[in-house]
């Protein structure tokens, strides 16, 4: 996998760090909600039942954003973009 594209570099860093405890700050991300009692309090794409971690697990597994959008009805491309940007900012401030 080439790491020349900024998002690819971000995912490469995320993948390398997966064995470490990384807690991303979703509080400033308008595309994410966390409701206690809904999907065990997991961070979800807003107004869906789709956990945010599904994005990262699927991309790590080789899926594209388009494939994710097709599999998880209700998740919008703008939400994915927002989550990726928030995750990147959170990792940059943590590192």
Keywords:
mainly alpha; two-stranded antiparallel ribbon; 2 strands; 46% helix; 95 residues
Number of strands: 2
The global form is globular
Count of individual helical segments: 4
Percent of residues in β-strands? 5-15%
Helix percentage range: 40-55%
CATH architecture field: Orthogonal Bundle
Whole-number average pLDDT? 79
Low-confidence segments: 1-21
- Rg (CA only): 13 Å
- Supply the CATH superfamily name: Winged helix-like DNA-binding domain superfamily/Winged helix DNA-binding domain
What does this molecule look like?
This protein has helices at 6-16, 53-60, 65-71, 77-94; strands at residues 32-34, 43-45. A hairpin with an 8-residue loop joins strand 1 (32-34) and strand 2 (43-45). The protein is 46% helix and 6% strand. It contains four helices and two strands, in the order αββααα. A two-stranded antiparallel sheet has the order 1-2. It has one domain (23-94): Winged helix-like DNA-binding domain superfamily/Winged helix DNA-binding domain (Arc Repressor Mutant, subunit A, Orthogonal Bundle). Residues 1-21 have low confidence and may be disordered. By secondary structure, the chain is mainly α. The chain is globular.
């Amino acid at each position: 996998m080439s790491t020349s594209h900024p998002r690819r570099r971000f995912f490469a860093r995320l993948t390398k760090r997966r064995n470490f405890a990384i807690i991303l700050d979703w509080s400033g991300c308008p595309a994410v909600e966390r409701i206690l009692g809904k999907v065990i309090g997991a961070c979800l794409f807003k107004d869906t039942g789709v956990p945010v971690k599904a994005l990262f697990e699927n991309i790590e597994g080789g899926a594209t954003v388009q494939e994710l959008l097709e599999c998880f009805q209700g998740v919008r491309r703008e939400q994915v973009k927002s989550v990726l940007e928030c995750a990147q900012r959170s990792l940059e401030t943590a590192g």
